[in-house]
Amino acid sequence: MPFEPVRRWCTFLVGDACFAVDSAAVIEVLRDRGLTRVPLAASGVLGLAHLRGRIVPVVDPAERLGVHPTGRNTRTHLVVALGDDWYGLLVDEMLDVIEIPPARIERPTAPGAAGDVVTGTYAAEHQLVHLLDPERMIQALVRQGAHHAARPGGTHGGLD
Fold first, then answer.
1. What is the pLDDT along the chain (160 residues), one digit of tens a residue?
2. What architecture (CATH level 2) is domain 7-149?
3. What is d(CA 137, CA 139) in angstroms, rounded to the nearest whole number?
């Protein structure tokens, strides 16, 4: 059996549930960042943030993950890189960066609302940590946005 190195994961809360993304994908953590709303955006897209000359779409994973927001006033944007693009995930609270041995990750067994974006679960000392694939989450929102833009009056740009 080939050796799999321990990976580092950034953990955070969305609602009262604990999630994590691979720390190699994390660019930055921003607190209380102002957003510019986007007309006709998909329901999970909250707006755009400006970060060092880049426009970063910010999404709210709560609905996609089946989690109820806590109603906190202060929230954080976890900026992740997916290829050359950056995206912000709105989270309620940043926790720690933890190391998880691959052998300790349980694969998802039951389909659910978040089943396609949760790639595994880790039983930490005091809570379960759901490991996310941010690319799958963003792709799902983009598909939803493409469907939204295909409606009459939903296109942008040139004249037909």
1. 566 788 999 999 999 999 999 999 999 998 877 889 988 887 778 899 988 899 999 988 887 888 887 766 667 889 999 999 999 999 999 999 999 999 999 987 666 555 688 999 999 988 999 999 989 888 776 665 555 444 433 433 333 3
2. Beta Barrel (2.40)
3. 6
Distance CA 118, CA 137 (A): 9
Query: Measured between alpha carbons, how far is 15 from 65 in angstroms, rounded to an integer?
Result: 10
User: Which are the contacts of 48, defined by CB distance < 8 A and separation ≥ 6?
Assistant: 35, 36, 38, 55, 56, 57, 58
Burial profile 82-99: b = 16 or more Cβ within 10 angstroms, e = fewer: eeeebbbbbbbeebeebe
The DSSP secondary-structure symbol of 108 reads P
Secondary structure class of 127 (helix, strand, coil): coil
Residue 16 DSSP class: T
Q: Kindly tell me the sign of the dihedral angle through the C-alpha atoms of 29, 30, 32, 37.
A: negative
Could you tell me the pTM of the whole model?
0.81
Residue type at 22?
D
In the chain the first and final C-alpha atoms are separated, in Å, by 57
